[in-house]
């Protein structure tokens, strides 16, 4: 019996393309924060960019070469231990960032920003870097580096990803003292790590916020079908009855991303402007289409 190849739907293709565009944008923001604000002030970034920064401070080797080489080795480890699914968007992110590091340095080589204001440069650089990584994470991507090390260790040991990343980043930033011989710069590195982590959490959490809907409408079948098609969310039909009228009704229960709320409200208004709709925020949603269930 001949098996037909199942092609991805148009919406799935658009979603994938959007992911890659957002990852590329995130890497551009990260590259600007790193090379425009942090490197000129001798401030060490975290992760593999931090190692590349230390090598640059010590011997002047351009950061893109060290960054790409270390990540190439780590990506081979990721493919071996974690598989292609984890690695493919990370490979894309590493290639894009490596390319744009050279381009950004060429265009900003003579640009001197905030020369006498290292703290402000530290804050701005951390905001750009945190936003860039957050966009990549929100689009199921990664900048590689310590993320890969953390994922591999987490696979075999009961240590959280955050613990591994924090420990490795602290070691890398502290090591910059041997190249700079300046504890003030090391402290700026710690501040950069803290601010970028905070900005990263804000970007990722805002993208992952979820909401739930309860919808009561005589046209519940049409509304449920439209939500199934786009924004492609599951719909549960609940049998209910009105307490005052005693009338049997159908109520729709939907979980969706916060950014999809406008789409859902628009199609409800289009189908049944008189529908009764309740929307509320939820702390976390785990399962297909949302976050993975977390557990040991």
Topology:
Layout: H1 10-38, H2 47-59, H3 63-82, H4 84-107, H5 118-138, H6 146-156, H7 161-175, H8 177-180, H9 183-208, E1 210-216, H10 220-229, E2 235-241, E3 248-257, H11 261-271, E4 276-282
Antiparallel strand pairs: 1-3, 1-4, 2-3
Helix pairs in contact: 1-4, 1-5, 2-3, 2-7, 3-4, 3-6, 5-9, 6-7, 7-9, 10-11
Sum this structure up briefly.
This protein is of the alpha+beta class. The protein is 62% helix and 10% strand.
How would you describe this protein?
The protein is an alpha+beta fold. It has 2 domains: 197 residues, no CATH class; 74 residues, Alpha-Beta Plaits (2-Layer Sandwich). Helix content is 62%, strand content 10%. The protein contains 11 helices and 4 strands, in the order αααααααααβαββαβ. Strands 2-3-1-4 form a 4-stranded antiparallel β-sheet, with helices on one face. Strand 2 and strand 3 form a beta hairpin. Helix 2 packs parallel to helix 7, helix 3 runs antiparallel to helix 4 and helix 6 crosses helix 7. It is elongated. The two termini are 42 Å apart.
DSSP helix fraction: 55-70%
Q: Tell me the structural class.
A: alpha+beta
Low-confidence stretches: 1-7
Gap between N and C termini: 42 Å
Annotation field: number of helices = 11
How many domains would you count in the coordinates? 2
What general form does the structure show? elongated
Q: Give the mean pLDDT.
A: 80
Strand order of the largest sheet: 2-3-1-4
| Main sheet: strands, sense, barrel | 4 strands, antiparallel
Determine the strand fraction and express it as a percent band: 5-15%
Cα gyration radius (Å)? 24 Å
Q: What string gives the helices and strands in order?
A: HHHHHHHHHEHEEHE
How many distinct beta strands?
4
